[in-house]
TrEMBL record:
Any one Gene Ontology BP term: glomerular filtration
Spans annotated as Disordered: 899-1009
Subcellular locations according to the entry: Cytoplasm, Cytosol
Name this polypeptide is given: TBC1 domain family member 8B
Lineage, uppermost ranks: Eukaryota, Metazoa, Chordata, Craniata, Vertebrata
Biased composition (Polar residues): 902-932, 989-1008
GO CC, any one term: cytosol
Organism, as annotated: Denticeps clupeoides (denticle herring)
Bias type Low complexity, positions: 976-988
Ranges of residues in domain EF-hand: 772-807
InterPro entries registered for this protein in UniProt: EF-hand-dom_pair (IPR011992), EF_Hand_1_Ca_BS (IPR018247), EF_hand_dom (IPR002048), GRAM (IPR004182), PH-like_dom_sf (IPR011993), Rab-GAP-TBC_dom (IPR000195), Rab-GAP_TBC_sf (IPR035969), TBC1D8B_PH-GRAM2 (IPR036015)
A single MF term (Gene Ontology): GTPase activator activity
Source superkingdom: Eukaryota
Length: 1057
């Protein structure tokens, strides 16, 4: 590896290098203690010295020096980890440099030429990958050591490295900590004792700063049940920040398979750098503090004073400039802060150059005066370039309905009028709209209650949703139009929960409120399919619609789900679990009496889950709940944590006397009922109790607990999946582990082939063992193998068992029906919904009419399957008779339909209501085509084909009766009563596998030759008429006993081998 030329004084080298080769201009040396004669005390001392001093010689014990003639100063220009590598560099110098050096006259020219050549080689090598590093030369040397010591994959990207000590018990090991995109590594070498650690970021459950008597500051890392402590950092806070960023980055990629396409800093793992991670953390903190859209990045920061008109003095703070906003925060972060959209700025003036002052003129005849601004000329130029002419949407006139709630002036109470007056005074002093000063007084007004008429406006302002809506005009309308008619699992769940959202509120007892709620939730699910829809979103959105316009409610929902409560509304609710872990930590610190009484605080986590997911809306009266939402939009999750702590504190004495969890839940619920008459007082008292909790403290606790929560979830999932398969089916040496793919999600890692699935299906099917269990397993495997790769994963397997164990009568029958359809047919979109758009578009219910009709071969096989399911059941005889009646009824109805078609076929223009459609295309129930009921009871004498088919079904499934032996034709097919073989029910009909050839859809020429078929509706309607069949299919399954029996059977089979 070529090195940036550095001076080396051989006189002080202490004989640590041995010369191998030399000429007039270059010297090749080997580090003493390496290679020949490397053992002994010399090797130990040299190795220790190299590690402690971070010498490249530890991993590159060969080097090349350029010597200046008649001088004691040499220049180190290359190093190598092996003899071959350094020899290549030496030969290159001999071929490309030596001949040229002879033309120079002076030593200075020779040295300058060599240095220029080496620097050119280094620049060419590091032009792509190392250009973003702070010190490319040092980083190249560190990268060489990292690759040599840890032997990680070639694409593993080293981010940064630090000198530190690793504590093994009570003994510190001085070495180097290397942080890469996927691993935390440490290396130390002291007097022959080598210490090497490699820990994956995804295995880390705890990452926190700590201090003790011996160590003032250190970093503790917990991973895989082990604890690692690192100390003696030069910049501990910087190191901890980078470690947090890398841990969070690795976990997000693991959980969500997220590749960060919108973040150029994290989009490519091979381009992640220390500087990039620091920038990313700074941008996230900037956006979180000022509640800005995620597209904003912190570009420039200036220290300055801001003239505060309501206090009549200058306050020191920082000006933060992003792409579209200019923000200011006072030095302590709590005295005042404001957000100035660039679109609101009219001009920038520089009235006094001596004081480095700027005056920013805003719309609405307002001006902000900044003074003592460092580099104020640059700031003024930046703002002028960014200034635009977009009007603020804050007070624009709109024809939309303000909200679902109406507030007639005649019913506004005196208390509401006093609140409005207080806020009007506040607006006059501090401004109104996006550029309003936010101070302690603002927070006090929020806690005391927001007027009903101003609630929507202030929610938009404090959440930052007003900026999202202003920068995305028309976006919501486009989403509503695009999502119209879209169908997904999210839309199905939305429709189910629409009428559960504040059902007692008048606003949601009419189609107006329900339609608005549907549009907002569907639009958001379309915008963010990663979240889609999660329970509790409907309750939150309902409250938002009460006080905000429909589009504003949408942007408020965006702000809550994507910024204020990140990772709350997904399938794992990781964000809520993280905040519950923070809540437990706060209980331990703030409520020590409760902690001593209840050692296990997980009870409070389970109770408080609904508090966090619904912002107390689900447990508090609506009058108090909206006041909590007021505080949440201003303070974020800190407000919910404060209220949760105050709730437990208020009930401290009663909780200490509780004997069980049920009694504690009753006590907490009683408090929520008490506050029904005094909503504002309830929130005011509780927030004043724990108002000293800082947002920075909460965010730090969030980051500390996130790794632990995610690691716990992953370990639990991994353990459940592994335990289920290993205990119920697989052994440690089973060949089934060949299908294990660790790169997939845990629920999809373990997969079954057909033979393995058949065995497991026979153990876990809800019916008794029958003659066609293997066939059912084959058909079920083919049905649930959606990607047709010949493998069924754990998730698909559980989905099928869920239908068979817990499905409704229709779902179970539909599953059996689809088993007998040919491959490639019968796939139905179960979420086929059309969305209702106002009163013009009606919702399309899930239709069983979309299932294809089943032909005679498939119907006979379905009947055989039903007979086989009843084997061994106490009501076996009644079930057989019921299926026989259903089969006979369906066949007679089909025969009647065929004869009606035969009678009406000569007259194609007839409009008789008795004329049926073709069996292959008809979707009308046969009960609508049969007018006289006597037709079924008294068929015509020539109806032999139906009776023949019925008798063959009975013979095929029930077997011949003793007094009437079964007759067969010459080809082995069941014979008709007259002794002839029936061609429509041949031996191929009785095969285990259903026919793969679609039925002929052409119109038959005669009733006896016609290809008949049945729809799922016909079969369902017929089976519903037999209560004994309904009871059998709907019979509940004892899943626990079934799994236990399967486990025992599998263990018995293994022991017999």
């Amino acid at each position: 590896m070529w090195l940036k030329p550095e001076e080396v004084l051989l006189k002080n080298a202490l004989k640590l290098w041995v010369t191998e080769k030399c000429n007039d201009y270059f010297i090749l040396q080997r580090r003493r203690g390496y290679g020949e004669g490397s053992g002994g005390l010399t090797g130990l001392l040299v190795g220790t010295l190299d590690t402690v001093l971070d010498s490249t010689a530890k991993v590159a014990p060969f080097r090349i020096l350029h010597q200046t003639p008649d001088s004691q100063v040499y220049w180190n220009i290359a190093c190598g980890a092996s003899q071959e590598e350094i020899t290549q560099h030496w030969e290159w110098l001999q071929q490309n440099i030596m001949r040229t050096l002879s033309v120079f006259d002076s030593s200075e020219d020779i040295t300058s030429f060599v240095q220029g050549k080496i620097r050119g080689l280094i620049a060419e090598e590091g032009k792509v990958s190392l250009v973003q590093e702070d010190d490319p030369e040092k980083f190249r040397e560190a990268l060489l050591r990292f690759e040599s010591w840890f032997c990680l994959p070639e694409k593993e990207k080293l981010v940064t490295y630090y000198s530190c000590s690793y504590w093994r018990g009570r003994v510190p090991c001085q070495g180097w900590l290397y942080l890469s995109t996927n691993f935390l590594c440490f290396y130390s070498y002291l007097l022959g004792n080598e210490v090497k650690l490699v820990v994956s970021w995804v295995e880390i459950s705890r990452l926190e700063k700590m201090s003790s008597v011996l160590l003032t500051e250190s970093i503790r890392v917990c991973a895989g049940g082990e604890e690692y402590v690192f100390s003696m950092f030069l910049h501990l806070q910087q190191t901890f920040l980078i470690m947090e960023q890398l841990g969070n980055y690795a976990v997000r990629r693991l959980i969500d398979k997220e590749m960060f396409p919108d973040d150029h800093i994290l989009s490519d793992p091979l381009q992640i750098t220390k500087r990039g991670l620091e920038t990313h953390a700074r941008n996230e903190a900037f956006r979180a503090f000022f509640r800005l859209p995620r597209e904003e990045n912190l570009l420039e920061v200036y220290e300055s004073f801001l003239w505060v008109p309501f206090s009549h003095f200058n306050t020191l703070g920082k000006i933060c400039v992003s792409e579209n906003y200019m923000c200011f925060a006072s030095q302590d972060g709590s005295q005042c802060h404001l957000i100035i959209p660039i679109r609101e700025i009219l001009s920038v003036e520089k009235p006094d150059r001596s004081s480095r002052a700027l005056t920013v003129c805003l719309r609405g005849k307002r001006a902000l005066k900044f003074s003592e601004v460092r580099d104020f000329e640059r700031l003024a130029g930046t703002i002028r370039r960014k200034c635009g002419s977009t009007a603020s949407p804050q007070h624009s006139v709109s024809n939309q309905v303000t909200s679902l709630s109406e507030f007639p002036s005649s019913v506004i109470s005196l208390k509401e009028k006093m609140k409005e007056q207080s806020w009007q005074i506040h607006f006059a002093e501090y401004g109104r709209g996006t550029s309003m000063f936010c101070t302690k007084k603002t927070r006090d007004l929020i806690v005391r209650g927001v007027p009903e008429m101003l609630r929507g406006e202030l929610w938009m302002l404090f959440s930052g949703a007003v900026n999202d809506m202003a920068t995305h005009p028309g976006y919501y309308t486009e989403l509503v139009e695009a999502s119209l008619g879209a169908s997904s699992l999210a839309t199905d769940e939305i429709e189910r929960d629409l009428h559960r959202s504040l059902p007692d509120h008048p606003a949601f007892q009419s189609d107006t409120g329900i339609s608005a709620l549907r549009r907002v939730l569907t639009a958001y699910a379309y915008r963010n399919p990663k979240i889609g829809y999660c329970q509790a979103m409907n309750i939150l959105t309902s409250v938002l619609l009460l006080y905000a316009k429909e589009e504003e409610a949408f942007w408020l929902l965006v702000a809550v789900c994507e910024r204020m409560l990140p990772d709350y509304f997904n399938r794992r609710i990781i964000g809520a679990l993280v905040d519950q872990a923070v809540f437990e930590d706060l209980i331990r610190v703030r409520l020590t009496q409760l902690t001593e009484h209840m050692t296990d605080l997980t009870f409070f986590s389970s109770v408080s889950l609904s508090w966090f997911l619904t912002l107390f809306i689900s447990v508090l009266p609506i009058e108090s709940a909206v006041n909590v939402v007021d505080c949440f939009f201003y303070d974020g999750i800190k407000a919910i944590l404060q209220l949760g702590l105050a709730t437990l504190d208020y009930n401290m004495d009663a909780l200490l006397c509780c004997h069980d969890d049920a009694e504690a839940v009753t006590i907490l619920n009683s408090l929520f009922l008490i506050c029904r008459g005094r909503p504002t007082d309830y929130v005011l008292v509780f927030f004043q109790k724990y108002g000293d909790i800082q947002s920075e403290e909460v965010e730090s606790m969030r980051r500390r607990n996130k790794l632990y929560v995610i690691q716990t979830l992953e370990d639990t999932t991994k353990q459940n999946v592994r335990q289920h398969f290993l205990s119920c089916y697989w052994t440690a040496n089973s060949p089934a582990l060949l299908h294990h793919d660790p790169s997939l999600a845990y629920l999809e890692q373990y997969q079954l082939g057909l033979s393995q699935y058949s065995l497991l299906f026979s153990l876990l099917q809800p019916w008794g063992p029958g003659t066609n269990t293997h066939s059912l397993a084959l058909w079920a495997f083919r049905l649930i193998d959606e990607n047709h790769d010949g493998l069924v994963n754990f998730k698909e397997f559980c989905g099928a068992l869920d239908i068979l164990y817990s499905g409704t009568f229709t779902e179970k029958l539909k599953f059996l029906f689809k088993l007998h359809l040919p491959p490639g047919r019968g796939k139905v979109d179960l979420q086929a919904y059309l969305k209702q758009w106002q009163d013009e578009i009606q919702k399309k219910e899930e239709s069983i009419k979309d299932l294809p009709r089943i032909n005679q071969t498939q119907f006979i096989q379905l009947s055989k399957t039903l007979y086989a399911l009843f084997h061994g059941d106490p009501e076996e005889e009644s079930l057989f008779r019921a299926v026989a009646r259903v089969t006979s009824l369906l066949l007679r109805m089909e025969e009647v339909g065929r004869r009606l078609q035969e009678n009406t076929s000569p007259s194609k223009t007839s409009t008789s209501p008795l004329q049926p459609l073709s069996p292959a295309t008809s979707t009308t129930s046969p009960f609508q085509t049969i007018s006289p009921p006597e037709t079924i009871a008294s068929p015509r004498p020539d109806a032999a084909p139906v009776e023949t088919v019925t008798s063959k079904l009975q013979v095929a499934h029930l077997g011949p009766e003793p007094s009437s032996p079964c007759k067969t034709g010459s080809d082995g097919a069941p014979a008709s009563p007259d002794g002839s073989s029936n061609p429509s029910i041949s031996s191929s009909t009785m095969e285990t596998e259903p026919a793969n050839t679609p039925s002929d859809n052409t119109a038959p020429t005669s009733p006896t030759d016609m290809e008949w078929s049945f729809s799922f509706e016909q079969i369902l309607a017929s089976l519903l008429n037999e209560p004994v069949l309904v009871r059998f299919i709907e019979k509940p399954v004892d899943t626990e006993n079934l799994l236990d029996r399967a486990r025992k059977d599998q263990l018995k089979a293994q022991m017999m081998k």
